[in-house]
Amino acid sequence: MLATAVLGAPTPIPSPTIEYGQLAPMLLVFGAAIVGVLVEAFTPKYLRKSIQMPITVLSLIGAFALTVWEGFQGVRNAAAMGAVAVDGPSLFIWGAILLLAVVSVLLINDDDQFVAQAAAVPGSAEEDQAISQGGAHTEIYPLVLFAVGGMMLFPASNDLLIMFVALEVMSLPLYLLCGLARRRRLLSQEAAMKYFLLGAFSSAFFLYGTALLYGFAGTVDLGGIEKALGTVGGQDSLLYMGAGMLGVGLLFKIGAAPFQAWKPDVYQGAPTPITALMASGTLIAAFGALLRVFWVALGNLDAQWTPVLWAVAILTMVVGAILAITQTDIKRMLAYSSIAHTGFLLTAVVATGKEAQNAGALAGILFYLVAYGFATVGAFAVVTMIRDAGGEAGHLSRWAGLGKRSPVLAGIFALFLLAFAGIPLTSGFFGKYAVFAAAVAGGAVQLVIVGVVTSAMAAFFYVRVIVLMFFSDPAPEGPTIAVPSMGTAAVVTVSAAATVVLGVFPQPVLDLAHTAAQSLFVR
Amino acid sequence: MPWLSILMGVPVVGALAVAAVPKGNAKLAKQLTLAVSLVVLALTLVMASQFDPSGPRDQFSEVHSWIPSFGVHYAVAVDGIALVLIALAVVLVPIVVLASWHDADQPEAKRSVKTYFALILVLEAMMIGVFAATDIFLFYVFFEAMLIPMYFMIGSYGGAQRSYAAVKFLLYSLFGGLLMLVAVIALYTVAGKGTFLQPELIGVIKDPATQKWLFLGFFIAFAVKAPLWPFHTWLPDAAAQAPAGAAVLLVGVLDKVGTYGMLRFCLELFPDAAKFFTPLVITLSVIGIVYGAIVAIGQTDMKRLIAYTSISHFGFITMGVFAMTANAGSGATLYMVNHGFSTGALFLLAGFLINRRGSQYIEDYGGVRKVAPILAGTFLIAGLSSLSLPGLSTFVSEFLVLIGTFQRYAVPGVIALSGMVLAAVYILWMYQRMMTGPTAEKVKAMPDLNLREKFVVAPLIALLIGFGFFPAPLLNVINPAVEQTLTSVQAPQFTPAVPATAEKKGPGQ
User: Fold this and answer.
1) Which end of chain B is more exposed for a tag (fewer CB within 10 A), N or C?
2) Which of B319, B90, B127, B338 is nearest to B223 (CA)?
3) Which residue of B has its CA nearest to A414?
4) How far apart (Å, rounded) are the C-alpha atoms in residues A165 and A159?
């Protein structure tokens, strides 16, 4: 009686509208992931791999086709009641992530990369038994699909809560996958543990920041927060603390200094195919989310966050380039190189201004991410092929003289390194040019000067590997070069081709990036 | 006919063909390389015969849009300066190929012979491209990309310290290049014309401060490349460790990109800044002339000695470029060509000596002229061309540079003269120690030049003597281009702010 008096007549809750068609690429990936889980439950062990692999690849390709179709339709909408933004940048990022995921899955499909039984203690009798029985964790495929789905949702979420959910959906499978390396399992488990703990911290920061911003704006909607910036007064401490904490969470995910410490450990310990997926896909997704938060929600606060991101960008470039020089493990070196590239990308994030300037910067970032993604996957694919008795030959000294033993493979790896160094006629050059040009146009000339100085430093350690491979004499008992499986060979070929084509005829992809960036983020 | 694209395409196709030659057949790879480079030479001569010195500045022009989003064009054309430098490159390449016939052969080193020759052809295409590019972005692309084949040529086929030298070479050049990249981007942004075409960017940057910064960005890259003192330290290492043929292309052609860039980009795009920095650049040039010469005297390794003489010569070239008089400009351009032939001959002969004796140290030789008179004689002529003896082509260019500099900067000109005297010391002293006196024990069995080597040296000596007596064919092509360059540099100086007719109108009219 009293309750009805207070609440009045019960009003029907309107059911939310969800544009299933626009979200189809993501739904397909998530759906396939769930089917994958069912396959794990109901099919005999020996059949699983031959079912999982086609499901995974076909769903990713199907999602890519749907994304392309939406791109042609020119979809630009905040779907699902404004929770998920399906706009130009989202579609471009989806396409890039899906392509790179297909390529990474070809690597993941390789035998001999993942542990036979994750629960077995390293070095124990159970482990030997699992290996001799030919055990394999086919859960990897659905886990990868969940991670990829999270990667797609993360940069497209238009609402901080959805973004948090996406962050977790993306990260949790990756934490697990990191610990599943077949060789050097302790290192792998350590990597998973570190990634999980630090990742959990950063998620907590993100969530706390979300809460504070909700306290400030009364909404978690990115567009709503932007509107609140102009109207809400006297709550600046909530705003700044919230924005800062969100920033910490996001900068952690892209691996910007001073939140970069996890990257080398995780990249080194994780199974190399997973490292390839993380180094390409996660970076793209996290950059998309970072841009959406800083440009959409905090777009009018740029006077406050620009100086901070300047400092972060400089620190990231310098830390990445300098620490990479001291590395002796190829995967750690590539991890620090990835940190340096994160710094280069940040130079364009701070270069905001008028709409045309923003579109140019966004297009530059998108192009860079694609160029870098392909070169990275290719480089890690080569890493999987250089093997010692105990697994991959990670130590740089083992790579000496590779150019004389296997000139083609070493030549391709050198191509990827030159692309990382930004030498003209490789994709990396145009990527670097695009972001630096945007940064100069946005008035960040000093940042670009730091960028080129650190690029020169970075060139040193890329070139050092080329020197080792081509100019040093082969080690007497050098590593063996695994005969690549069809999948690995395809990955290396596709990545090398992408690196060259984007370095000579970048125009089609640049056009695509410009079209995607033209109308900026939907609000 | 797209002459310049053909000139670049032929060596690239040739390089692919050479790379596709079966592994055991090194001889075929060499013959193919030589044939391709001779075809390119022939094509260049045909193109040059159609060049009209009194015609428009940019000839054989091709402009195609390459990356519209960045405003980048595939734009190539040549003026007189670019034409003679392209000619220098394509003349040197077949000579270098012939001279390097056995350089990559040592079987114990397990080096791929065909790769070396394929790299030479790739480099040739890029050398043509860098001089022909009229789009600044395209120029930059060639400028950086050509480091890679040279890096592998030094690093894979060079001497004992090759990987150190190769990395030093690459990092120095890359660092300079990246600074230039900032300037290129800034030029595009500040100009706001949406294009990188050099002719359209002349005179666009007006603000003096901006000009100075952009000038510095370009200039440091070119000063590292040239190399100008104090950016020179990579050159002696790189040239001493590179195989002789690669050293010729490196010092003879690649380094000219630096001085060419100063003339073409620094002066024309940023004339006011260039004038502002002239005292500094002239000072550095003069220091380089004297310093290079003195250090050359003290060298014990003949390849390093030749490298240091080049640093001295590059001082003359930059001085000529920045003196900004017609004589000095023409002299500097002519100097670039002659220095290529002269230093090329010296490096190649030094390479022949090193192949025979197995040592690059001057002290290991003595009395060579008794056992190998032709080798010693041609070495002397090449040496004399390096010290600019009248009658050899280098004299003409050095004389023009000095005259042109005196017209404007007398004191630096006088100091630079000492470089000529010191040149006599380092060349003649080296000749004396190596070629005269009692024949050293290890040199006694040294064979004289064989037929292949004579074919290598003869064209260079012929060019040095020929252009020494009759430089007109080169100067006729160079002079109009230099005059046009200087016109665009000095344009603001001579254009009255108020037209002459308007001036007559007094207040009463």
Assistant:
1) C
2) B319
3) B148
4) 10
For residue A145, tell me if it sits in a domain: yes
Maximum distance among all alpha carbons in chain A? 90
How many contacts (CB atoms, under 8 Å) link A and B? 85
Q: Which two tokens stand for residue A484?
A: 């690549």
- What is the interface pTM, i.e. ipTM, of the complex? 0.86
Residues of B whose CB is below 8 A from A449:
179, 182
Contacts B186 to A, Cβ<8 Å: 440, 445
Asked if B262 contacts B180 with a C-beta cutoff of 8 angstroms, the reply is: no
Put simply, the answer to whether A506 touches B170 (Cβ < 8 Å) is no
Closest CA to B86 of B25, B5, B27: B5
Interface contact A467-B175, CB threshold 8 A = no
Tell me which residue of A444, A303, A434 sits closest to A366, measured CA to CA: A434
**How many Å apart are CA A497 and CA A33, to the nearest integer?**
30
Residue B61, token pair as written in the block? 């022009």
> Is cis: bond before B471, omega within 30 of 0?
no
Nearest chain A CA: its distance from B236 CA (Å): 20
Tell me the two tokens of residue A20.
């299933």
**Statement: residue B110 has pLDDT above 80:** no
CA trace torsion A218, A221, A224, A230 (10° rounding)? 70
Q: How far apart are CA B214 and CA B270, in angstroms?
A: 8
- The average confidence (pLDDT) of chain B is 87
Whether residues A456 and B174 touch (CB distance < 8 A) is answered with yes
> Using one digit for the tens of pLDDT, what is the confidence trace for A66-87?
999 998 888 888 888 889 999 9
Which is nearest to A409 in space by CA: A484, A459, A356, A351?
A484
Q: Which two tokens stand for residue A246?
A: 């969100």
Cβ B171–A436 below 8 Å, yes or no? Answer: no
Inside any domain, residue A9: no
Identify the residue whose tokens are 């010191």. B422
* Structure token pair of residue A136: 């394999």
How confident is the model over A36-77, as pLDDT tens digits?
999 999 998 888 888 999 999 999 999 999 999 998 888 888
Q: Which of B68, B70, B178 has the CB atom closest to A456's CB atom?
A: B178
Cα–Cα distance for residue pair A228/A49, rounded to 1 Å: 51
State the angle between helix axes of A507-518 and A355-385 in degrees (0 to 180), rounded to the nearest 10.
130
- Residue A3 counted as domain residue: no
pLDDT, average across residues A314-321: 94
Q: Do B152 and A470 touch (CB under 8 A)?
A: yes
What angle do helix axes A427-441 and A486-504 make, rounded to 10 degrees? Answer: 50
Distance CA B416, CA A479 (A): 57
Domain count, chain A: 1
Q: What is the 3-state secondary structure (H, E, C) of B282-348?
A: HHHHHHHHHHHHHHHHCCCEHHHHHHHHHHHHHHHHHHHHHHCCHHHHHHHHHHHHHHHHHHHHHHH
Q: Which residues of A touch B (CB under 8 A)?
A: 363, 404, 407, 418, 421, 423-425, 429-430, 433-434, 436-437, 440-441, 445, 448-449, 452-453, 455-456, 459-460, 463-464, 467, 470-472, 506-507, 510-511, 514
- CB pair distance less than 8 Å for B182 and A424: no
Say if A82 falls within a structural domain.
yes
